[in-house]
Amino acid sequence: MLEKLRRRAIDSGAPASVDEALALDRCCATGELLDAADGIRLKWCGDKIHTCSIVNARSGRCQEDCKWCAQSCRHRTGVNEYDSIGRDEMMTAFDRNRALKASCFSMVTSGRKVSPANLTHFCRLYKEAAAKGGIELCASMGLLDRDQLQQLWDAGVHKYHCNLETSASFFPSLCTTHTTAEKLATIKAAREIGFTICCGGIIGMGESMRDRLEMAEMAREVGASSIPINILQPIKGTPLQDVEPISEEEIARSVALMRFVAPKCTLHFAGGRARLSKESTARILRGGMNGALIGDMLTTVGNNVEEDLRLFDKTGYKV
Known about the structure:
The chain is globular and about 55 Å long. It is 42% helix and 14% strand. Helix 8 (209-221) runs parallel beside helix 9 (248-261). The longest helix is centred in the middle third of the chain and has 17 residues, at 116-132. It contains eleven helices and nine strands. Helix 4 links the parallel strand 1 (50-58) and strand 2 (104-109). It has an eight-stranded parallel beta barrel, surrounded by five helices. The chain is α/β, with parallel strands linked by helices. The chain has one domain (2-314): Aldolase class I (TIM Barrel, Alpha-Beta Barrel), CATH 3.20.20. It starts with a helix and ends in a 5-residue tail after the last helix.
């Protein structure tokens, strides 16, 4: 079955169904699964790694109740709080990441959606960044409507990020203040304007492998070109603070199976990979993954960028 699905994905780009991918999980050894996923990655994505960078443009003060998130005001995490990033700090971050030759740069905000005043401020900053050029601009600003998304587009932002987080069936156990349907409505509006979509989730929150694969399938079906895969880092003060971390092997298998479900998408290492060994990180990069968030995350410290670049080169990628 592995060879059949591998060959089908390579020959035509046809994705595996969730049930087919789960059958692979039951019958395949980890090494052969990752090798097959890497062949699919090489066919459709080549040897260029996609590197993204982010800056936390609004921190804390979020009224939503997402159980994994340090930025919800419902949890006591001690997260740094501010309403909006200043011009100098944002442009410094932009210039630094452009110099590192990151493929994409995004401002990310806490909260259900940004306020009109903040959106105006952020669009002004994006216009300044767009005038400098040299890097794709992305925004992750919550459940925006079409008019708000159009403002970002007009400011030079042509990629929009809105994570599904997990499967539609598991999501209500993690968040009650907004729904998967609302996320899909924002994604649909962004696609209609012309945005490239970045849409993924978090693994290790107590979900099943089916939940992970259904998330990847849903992201592919809504037209995501990039699927970021975060690995939960249990944060003290959140309801998931005591969740037992999933193993490195389970993370590797999850990524490989997602490659079968979304053969042509960029699969991104996002938050949480700092806890992986260098050996596991390298193996996953040769097991279906072909992108990475570089630099610091939103509320946790990221990997050393110079070390990342050496690792990408060592695993055969071109930045």
